[in-house]
Design a protein that fits this description.
With about 190 residues, the chain is of the alpha/beta class. The chain has nine helices and five strands; from the N terminus they run ααβαβααβαβααβα. Helix 3 packs across helix 9 and helix 5 runs parallel beside helix 6. The longest helix has 22 residues. The protein starts with a helix and ends with a helix.
Length: about 190
C-alpha cells in the first residue's frame, strides 16, 4: 500500500544519503569546542591542515553587537547566541550535504542545546565534536598571555555556563595540557579519520 511506497521514497531522500555517509564512515564536520582560551582556533587550524579540511572560527560569525558586548565584559544571552548558532548549523549542513567537503569549526558550544543546534538533523557520524577540556586556572593563564576580543573576566561566566558533555552525546574529551600537535594526533587516531 501507500505506506510501502512512502518508505521507498524515503530511501532515496537526502536523509537516506546522510545515513549512507554514516555507514561509509564519512565524517564531514568536526566541531572543536571549549571555553575561550582552551585552544580551539590553534587546534582547529592544525586539525584542518592535517585532515585536509576547511577551517572556520565561529567567532568570525558573531554579529558586531555580540562582539561589542563580549569586549565590554557583558555575557551573551541565549537570545544573542541563537541567530549565530543557526548560521553555524547551516554552514555545517552545507559542507556535509551540498559541498561534500570537510570542515573543522572552532566553536565554544558550551551548552548541550547549542551542540544540538549545531548538529541539526545530521546523523551522528557526519558531525563529530571534540571537547578541549582544561581547568579554569590554566585557561585564565593562557588568556592573559594573548590578545583576544574576549574579556578574560568573562571566563568565570563561561565555566558557569559550560555543560560538560555526558556519554549520551558521544563527544571526544581531550585535555588541553597536551601540545596542540599531540591533541591533533590524538583526535585523528581516536576518531579514525
Amino acid at each position: 500500500g501507500s505506506r510501502f511506497e512512502w518508505r521507498m521514497d524515503r530511501k532515496f531522500s537526502k536523509t537516506a544519503s546522510i545515513g549512507s555517509s554514516k555507514e561509509d564512515g564519512k565524517t564531514f564536520a568536526l566541531i572543536v569546542m571549549g571555553v575561550s582560551g582552551s585552544g580551539k582556533s590553534t587546534v582547529g587550524l592544525e586539525l584542518a591542515k592535517a585532515w585536509k579540511a576547511d577551517f572556520k572560527d565561529a567567532d568570525d560569525f558573531h554579529s558586531q553587537g555580540n562582539k561589542t558586548k563580549m569586549s565590554n565584559g557583558i555575557p551573551l544571552t541565549d537570545g544573542d547566541r541563537l541567530p549565530w548558532l543557526k548560521t553555524l548549523a547551516s554552514l555545517v549542513a552545507s559542507y556535509a550535504l551540498e559541498r561534500k567537503q570537510r570542515l573543522v569549526l572552532a566553536c565554544s558550544a558550551l551548552k548541550k542545546s547549542y551542540r544540538n543546534i549545531l548538529r541539526g538533523k545530521l546523523d551522528e557520524g557526519v558531525t563529530k565534536i571534540v571537547f578541549l577540556d582544561g581547568s579554569q586556572e590554566l585557561i585564565a593563564k593562557r588568556l592573559s598571555e594573548r590578545k583576544h576580543f574576549f574579556n578574560s573576566s568573562l571566563l568565570s561566566s563561561q565555566f558557569e555556563a559550560l555543560e560538560r558533555p555526558d556519554e549520551s552525546e558521544k563527544i571526544m574529551k581531550i585535555s588541553v595540557e597536551n601540545t596542540s600537535k599531540e591533541i591533533v594526533e590524538d583526535i585523528l587516531k581516536t576518531l579514525q579519520l
